[in-house]
Amino acid sequence: MKPQGPTFDKAWRAVSRVAPVARADAAPMIQKHYLGKWPGVCVMTLGLFCRDRVEGVIVFALPPRETFKRYGGLTWELARLWVADDIPANAETYLIAQAVKYIKRLRPEVHALVSYADPSAGHAGTIYRAANWTADGKTDGERKTPRFDYADGRTGRKYSRKAHVPADADIVRVPRVSKHRFSYALV
C-alpha cells in the first residue's frame, strides 16, 4: 500500500494512458512484484504510461478451468499488478478501471475477471473494492480438508505440488493460506 500523499488526480490522468506493453518492457516490473515471476498463461499485458514512460503493469492470465464454470464463461485472472512507488496513490485503481474498459471494448468474449488478495503478503483486497469488484469468498472456502504446499526443509524453497519437489529434498508440509477472491462481471 502506498503512503498517503498526492493522489492520481485529473492532472495525472491527463498525462497517462493504459495500453499494451511489450513483455520486455514489463519484465523489470514483474521482477519487482512480490511474487517476482510471470504467471503461467498470460493473455494480456497492459502498461500504465505516464508521460510516455511505463510506470506500472497489469497482467491477465488464464485461471484454472474450474473458474470458467464458477463465472459462467471465459474468465481471466488479474494475476499481476504493479505500479512504481513514486506514482501517486489511487493509480492502481485507475489502472484496473482502464484495463477493464480495454477488455470490454476489445475482448467481448471474456465474461468475467477474477483476482486474489494474499493475506500472507499483507493484502486485503482494498484496491479491488475501490475498483468496484465483488468480494467472492476465499479460496479453499468450499473445501472439507485443508490444502498444503511443500517446502524443502534445507533450502526453504516452496513447491505447490509434491511431484515438483526434488527427490533429495527434506519435505516439509506447509499449510496453505486461503486468499480473498474478488470478481468483476463483464457481461
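the 2nd protein, sequnce then structure:
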Amino acid sequence: MPTDRRNVRHNGGDDARPRSRRIVTGKGTTMPRWLREDITRVTRKDRLEETLYLLDSGTEAFADGRYRKAYAVLSKTKELSPRADAVRELLALSAYRAGMWKEALAELRTFRRLTGDTTHMPIEMDVLRALRRGDDVRKVWAEFLELGGRPETVKEAKVVYGSFLIDEHDLQGAWKVVNPKKLTSTPFEEDLRQWFVAARTAALLGDRETALRLIRAIDSHDPSMPGLEELRSSVSSGRD
C-alpha cells in the first residue's frame, strides 16, 4: 500500500467516482437514461434485462460503500456485457476502493482502452504505487502528460505523482510537480489536495514559511481536511 495515504487523492470521500456523467445514483433513484441507452447499445438483447438489474444492484452497493459486494455483482455484469465501458469503470473503482489492486489495474486499463478517457489515470498511478511498481508509475505519468486531461484530472495526477516522488525521496521533483504557483481564493477540492502535498513537500525541504502559508490557505477553506492538523503540528514544531 502507498506510504501515507493522506497524500493521495483517494483517501475516502467521493473522489474515486465515475466520470462526468455520474453513474452511482443510490437507493430509490432511477438509472439515468444515458446509461440505459449505453448499456442497451452494447449488450445482447437476451442479456439486457439481467445486465441492467445487476448494474443497478452493483451501483447501489457502491453508493453504500460495500465495495467488495459491488465488485462481485459487477463482475457478473461484465460477463453479460463485456463491452460496456460504464460497467468496466464502476468495476475498476469498486476494486480500487476495496484495495484489490491487481483487479483494479486490469479494469482501469480496459476502461481506458475502450474509451480513450484519461480521467482515471491518476487512480491508475495510485494503484501502481500501491503495487510498488515505481517504473510503471513514471511511465503512466509521462503518458498522461502526453495525452492530457481535464484541469481537475491534471491536478489529481499531480497529487498522486507528487506523493509518489515524496515516497522516492525526490523532494525537488515533487515540488516541481505540486507547486501551485498561486493560491486561488475559490479553490476546488483537488486544489486543496494539491496544496496539502505541496505543504508536505515544502516542510520536508525545510521551507517552513511556505509550508505554513499553504497550511493556512487550506485551513481557511477546509479546516477538517484529514492530516492537516498533524501536518501543522509537525511543521510548527520543526519536525516531519
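Residues 20-115 form one domain. The chain is about 65% helix and 0% strand.
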